[in-house]
């Protein structure tokens, strides 16, 4: 059954770029039955609309399956590989070197409603919660992101980023 298209669905051209970056199905066990394009469509729908996993529309794959792939790809670096490949292509089309030679760091502190994660107090912003530190290249394309307690200084956030991305 063909479902109606969502504005967050991948185009054929976008799918051709991302398809080779999706990990192959594991050998042994049950064969993969889900369409990986539909899994990505479901993830992009969820992220674009800011909904809960359990609120996933019923014409997309089951939320439990989509969540399982989302977390697995987070753990095995698939999302990072996708970002790196897309950034390389965008830089190439702009006539830039594939690898950036400079970057910019920024951070943002936000109040959090509940605990469980590392939280802290950002005295400069007077915010108790979490802080996001990002590293972008000179085109504004994401190189790295780190989320931590707001009590860490910007310098400490940059050091955390450096453990994940050390080419700048």
From TrEMBL:
UniProt-annotated stretches for the region Disordered: 93-124
Superkingdom of this protein's organism: Bacteria
Domain Transposase IS4-like stretches: 99-161
Species classification: Bacteria, Bacillati, Cyanobacteriota, Cyanophyceae, Nostocales
Gene Ontology molecular functions: DNA binding; transposase activity
PANTHER family: PHP DOMAIN PROTEIN (PTHR30007), TRANSPOSASE (PTHR30007:SF0)
InterPro entries found in the cross-reference section: IS402-like_dom, Transposase_11
Biased composition (Polar residues): 98-111
Name of protein: Transposase
Gene Ontology annotations of biological process type: DNA transposition
């Amino acid at each position: 059954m063909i479902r109606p298209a969502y504005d967050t669905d991948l185009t054929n051209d976008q799918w051709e770029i991302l398809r080779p970056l999706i990990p192959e199905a594991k050998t042994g066990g049950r064969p993969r039955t889900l369409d990986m394009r539909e899994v990505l469509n479901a993830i992009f729908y969820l992220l674009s609309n800011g909904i809960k996993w359990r609120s996933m529309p019923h014409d997309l794959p089951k939320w439990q399956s989509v969540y399982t792939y989302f977390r697995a790809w987070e753990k095995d670096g698939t999302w990072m590989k996708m970002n790196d490949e897309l950034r390389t292509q965008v830089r190439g089309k702009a006539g830039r070197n594939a690898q950036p030679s400079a970057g910019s760091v920024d951070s943002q502190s936000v109040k959090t409603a509940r605990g469980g994660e590392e939280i802290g107090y950002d005295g400069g912003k007077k915010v108790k919660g979490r802080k996001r530190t990002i590293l972008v290249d000179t085109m504004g394309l994401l190189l790295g992101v780190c989320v931590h307690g707001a009590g860490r200084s910007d310098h400490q956030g940059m050091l955390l980023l450096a453990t994940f991305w050390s080419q700048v």
